[in-house]
């Protein structure tokens, strides 16, 4: 072992390496978010035969950065009757939670900040905390519209978390592990090894529940991130902008970035859990001869393409589908998705035990 | 060293925020401090390398139970002055209860440290390094104690059904969406074509 590798094994070196990794992930996500946000607006515009943002930079590519500076340079307005500490804390919580969930996401083999054994549970824990930023923001504003908006939003997020948890249990049953890296590794090889298609030939019949569950997970992800058609918390016609009415300037920006980071995170989740993560859907034996770093760059590109594909789908849904009514949203979550995912869990578990054997 | 530092940090945060839960003037702040207490307790579990329990604590208590608390407390129309009235009166009683609990906890932890408490009973066998604690808990819960686990599940189910039975009432006169009725509605039942002569118009009676 030479001097350079032994330094990274010491506590100081390990801390520095981890901090560097975290910084890389956060900066990478923030920059991708700037362009994904623009893509979201461009796709929306294209569906409606508009041009979308096209003034700042070539094709409007720098629009998000212009928006960023505009938000940051504005005055932070804090309502006089608000609970000031909680009011400022709420967007910070939303922002931080949206980013710490990325700690367990494997971008390529070995490229993960923290390879937790309970990675999926960690993600569930973090996403169940996300509700607090919204409730606190709505309550601290001390105003009726944000409060109603936050209550709606919290009820919606809690409802869909249940069915999402059950769908994730399907994946855990198929994979037999809660470690995200292992889940992705098990999906390598041909495309039928992806969990969306039953996760391998041995469990191929589970495709009849796993494929629908992938779509249910996608719809639940829309509801979980308050995206259209489930954007009831910010239904402009009734609630102005939901829990963020009183927010301006940087705190609003934090909410906004947190929201988009969550959306992209959900895309990454669908990719990792159902669509093979970094695996391109065919055996990658040709990468055995190249250095690991180059192979990892290829895997990272595959992962990014899949994430962008799901983001594209989410952006399309925003343009196509009209907003749900609140009781319809609750009905969909509790009366359709929850029983359906429960049946799927029973089916997959039974298949694992009786057909595959253990 | 790092572990010790983390322990003292988390323990201090847990104790201080637990104190603030009872002393905070605003009940919503109390719940927020409670969440911080749960969170540091989860951190302590991680230090014990019981990461599964830590995550469950966050998912169940912080993600579900505390959200319900927060909902209820925010909806209540609380009179802060009235809430503080009995504080001094109930303080001695609360102090006694807390003191008894503290004494019990200290006694339990002393006896566990000395190895006396779990000696006779089925002492937990530390799992090997290659067995995750999800697997260990799963084995204990679903293999060794499967009947107790099922019984606990039935008790919870009965409690849930009981709560629904007690609170469910069908109020008359509330408009609800009947999807089956909507889907089965046919054109013939809903629309009637009337031919109206040009320039004549119709009276309401004719339409009925």
UniProtKB/TrEMBL annotation, chain A:
Catalysis performed (reactions): a quinone + NADH + 5 H(+)(in) = a quinol + NAD(+) + 4 H(+)(out)
Gene Ontology cellular-component terms listed: plasma membrane
UniProt membrane topology term: Multi-pass membrane protein
A single GO molecular function term of this UniProt record: NADH dehydrogenase activity
Entry's Gene Ontology BP terms: aerobic respiration
Recorded family membership: Belongs to the complex I subunit 1 family.
NCBIfam families hit by this protein: PRK06076.1-2, PRK06076.1-6
Entry protein name: NADH-quinone oxidoreductase subunit H
Taxonomic source organism: Brevundimonas naejangsanensis
Name of the coding gene: nuoH
UniProtKB/TrEMBL annotation, chain B:
Superkingdom, natural source: Bacteria
The reaction(s) this protein catalyses: a quinone + NADH + 5 H(+)(in) = a quinol + NAD(+) + 4 H(+)(out)
MF terms (GO), sorted A to Z: oxidoreductase activity
Membrane topology listed for this record: Multi-pass membrane protein
Keyword annotations of the record: Cell membrane, Membrane, NAD, Oxidoreductase, Quinone, Transmembrane, Transmembrane helix
InterPro entries: NADH_UbQ/plastoQ_OxRdtase_su6, Nuo/plastoQ_OxRdtase_6_NuoJ
Positions of transmembrane segments: 6-24, 31-50, 56-78, 90-113, 145-168
Compartment(s): Cell membrane
Broad class of enzyme this protein falls into: translocase
Its EC number(s): 7.1.1.-
UniProt keyword Coiled coil present: no
Family: Belongs to the complex I subunit 6 family.
Function of the protein: NDH-1 shuttles electrons from NADH, via FMN and iron-sulfur (Fe-S) centers, to quinones in the respiratory chain. Couples the redox reaction to proton translocation (for every two electrons transferred, four hydrogen ions are translocated across the cytoplasmic membrane), and thus conserves the redox energy in a proton gradient.
Record-given protein name: NADH-quinone oxidoreductase subunit J
């Amino acid at each position: 072992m030479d001097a350079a590798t032994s330094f990274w094994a010491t506590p100081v070196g390990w801390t520095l390496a981890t901090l560097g990794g975290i910084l890389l992930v956060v900066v990478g996500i923030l920059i991708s978010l700037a362009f994904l946000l623009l893509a979201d607006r461009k796709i929306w515009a294209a569906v409606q035969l508009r041009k979308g943002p096209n003034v700042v930079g070539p094709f409007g590519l720098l629009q998000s950065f212009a928006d960023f500076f505009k938000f940051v340079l504005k005055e932070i307005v804090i309502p006089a009757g608000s609970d000031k500490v909680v009011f400022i804390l709420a967007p910070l919580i939303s922002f931080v939670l949206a980013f710490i969930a990325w700690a367990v996401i494997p971008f390529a083999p070995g490229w993960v900040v923290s390879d937790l054994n309970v990675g999926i549970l960690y993600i569930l824990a973090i996403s169940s905390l996300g509700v607090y930023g919204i409730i606190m923001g709505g309550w601290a504003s001390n105003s009726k519209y944000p409060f109603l908006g936050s209550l709606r939003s919290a009820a919606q997020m809690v409802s869909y978390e249940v069915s999402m948890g059950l769908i994730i249990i399907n994946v855990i049953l198929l994979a037999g592990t809660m470690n995200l890296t292992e889940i992705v590794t098990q999906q390598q090889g041909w495309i039928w090894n992806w969990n969306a298609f039953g996760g391998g030939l041995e469990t191929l019949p589970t495709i009849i529940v796993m494929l629908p569950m992938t779509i249910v997970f996608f719809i639940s992800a829309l509801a979980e991130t308050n995206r259209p058609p489930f954007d009831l918390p910010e239904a402009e016609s009734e609630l102005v902008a939901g829990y963020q009415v009183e927010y301006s300037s940087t705190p609003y920006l934090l909410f906004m970035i947190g929201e988009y980071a969550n959306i992209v995170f959900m895309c990454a989740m669908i990719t990792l859990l159902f669509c093979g993560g970094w695996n391109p859907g065919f055996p990658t034996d040709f990468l055995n001869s190249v250095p690991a770093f180059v192979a990892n760059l290829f895997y990272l590109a595959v992962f990014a393409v899949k994430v962008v594909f799901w983001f594209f789908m989410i952006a399309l849904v925003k343009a196509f589908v009209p907003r749900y009514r609140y009781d319809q949203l609750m009905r969909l979550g509790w009366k359709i998705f929850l029983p359906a995912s429960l049946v799927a869990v029973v089916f997959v578990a039974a298949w694992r035990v009786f057909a595959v054997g253990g | 060293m790092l572990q010790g530092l983390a322990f003292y940090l988390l323990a201090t945060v847990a104790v201080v925020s637990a104190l603030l839960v009872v002393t905070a003037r605003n009940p919503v702040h109390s719940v927020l401090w409670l969440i911080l207490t749960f969170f540091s307790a989860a951190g302590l579990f991680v230090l014990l390398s019981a990461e599964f329990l830590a995550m469950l604590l966050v998912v169940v208590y912080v993600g579900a139970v505390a959200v319900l608390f927060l909902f209820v407390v925010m909806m209540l129309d609380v009179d802060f002055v009235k809430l503080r009235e009995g504080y001094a009166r109930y303080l001695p009683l609360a102090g006694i209860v807390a003191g008894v609990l503290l004494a019990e906890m200290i006694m339990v932890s002393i006896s566990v440290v000395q190895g006396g408490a779990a000696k006779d009973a089925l002492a937990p066998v530390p799992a090997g390094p290659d067995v995750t604690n999800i697997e260990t808990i799963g084995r204990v819960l679903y293999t060794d104690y499967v009947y107790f686990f099922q019984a606990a599940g039935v008790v919870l189910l009965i409690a849930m059904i009981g709560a629904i039975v007690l609170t469910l009432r069908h109020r008359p006169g509330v408009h609800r969406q009947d999807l089956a009725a909507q889907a089965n509605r046919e054109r013939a039942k809903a629309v009637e074509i009337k031919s109206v002569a040009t320039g004549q118009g119709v009276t309401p009676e004719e339409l009925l």
